[in-house]
Design brief:
With 298 residues, the chain is α+β, with helices and mostly antiparallel strands. 29% of the residues lie in helices and 27% in strands. The strands form 2 sheets. Strands 8, 9, 10, 11, 12, 13, 14, 15 and 16 form a 9-stranded mixed sheet that branches. Strands 1, 2, 3, 4, 5, 6 and 7 form a 7-stranded antiparallel sheet that branches. The longest helix is centred in the first third of the chain and has 14 residues.
């Protein structure tokens, strides 16, 4: 089903301290963030009117900006308040929330000390990130060609806009070839992550996940690790080489948009939608939708 372009929707966006009509939230074509990638962002989901892990996301937004050598002119508490305000203004119960901070148009060139730092927050109704039918069976992934960069060559610990350029390329390549997404390796040839989600594998009841030393240690990733440990499951963070995928029985990816999504294949490797993956999917759903979990249990 076709949806309206994102610049032509109805609603309200919080921008630099005030709510403005959706269509009026605009920036100039000579904005530094557009030309040089000097922007950072977050993605959050609201469930039952509450934004999940809101403060953790706002804190990470601040940390990302500092890595890119700018300060956001709003505190974590002020960002939290603005995010809640946007959700209410758009009358959302379940939805996606996108804060973004960027350098403005006051200075053009690589140097940007004179630019103003802007902050905007939008929220909209956004269902499953992946096709629900494909998600139910487990996603089909291919291997990406581009690799996550060495942290000495890119600000890997920042959720920076420019770092997603190669992810878009790989996502497009995967979809052209009939896959839902791509698994990216790092510069050493080790398993890293999908284009916008962390990855987990299961072998003999143990969860294995790559050490996040050159990509984001996702908030959903950490949440799922906590849920697994509550279930008494062992979680091993380690180097994983691509050829090891033949040894794993289950696989899933995690992220704010992806939530917990099973994977049925990566290239030539196949995985079952097994009991542990289903359990963690259900546990995560119960965590973010506690009211529905209580109603289902009663």
């Amino acid at each position: 089903m076709a949806t309206a372009p994102y610049d032509q929707r109805d609603g309200t966006i919080w921008m630099n301290g005030k709510l403005v009509p959706w269509k009026d939230a605009q920036v100039h074509v000579l904005t530094h963030g557009l030309h040089y990638g000097s922007g950072v962002f977050e993605g959050m989901r609201a469930y039952d009117g509450e934004i999940f892990k809101l403060t953790e996301h706002s804190q990470r937004l601040h940390e990302s900006a500092k890595i890119l050598d700018f300060d956001i002119p709003y505190s974590v508490a002020e960002i939290d308040k603005a995010c809640r305000e946007v959700v209410r203004a758009n009358k959302l119960t379940d939805g996606y929330v996108r804060p973004i901070a960027w350098r403005g148009s006051e200075q053009m060139g690589v140097a940007a000390q004179a630019t103003k730092v802007n902050l905007a927050i939008a929220a909209w109704d956004w269902g499953s990130y992946f096709d629900p039918a494909a998600r139910a069976k487990g996603l089909r992934l291919t291997f990406g060609h581009y690799r996550r960069p060495d942290p000495r060559t890119a600000p890997a610990k920042s959720k920076a806009t420019g770092l997603y350029m190669i992810c878009t390329i790989e996502k497009h390549r995967a979809e052209r070839e009939g896959y839902a997404d791509a698994l990216m390796l790092d510069w050493r040839g080790q398993v890293a992550e999908a284009t916008g989600a962390n990855v987990f594998f299961i072998k003999d009841g143990v969860l294995h996940t790559p050490t996040p030393d050159c990509f984001l240690d996702g908030i959903t990733r950490r949440t799922v690790i906590g849920l697994a440990k509550q279930r008494g499951l062992k979680v091993v963070e380690r180097v994983i080489m691509p050829e090891e995928l033949a040894d794993f029985s289950e696989c899933f990816i995690t992220g704010t948009a992806a939530e917990v999504t099973p994977v049925s294949e990566i290239g030539q490797y196949r995985f079952a939608l097994g009991d542990i993956t289903r359990m963690l999917m259900n546990d995560y759903a119960a965590l973010v939708h506690p009211a529905k979990a209580i109603a289902a249990a009663s």
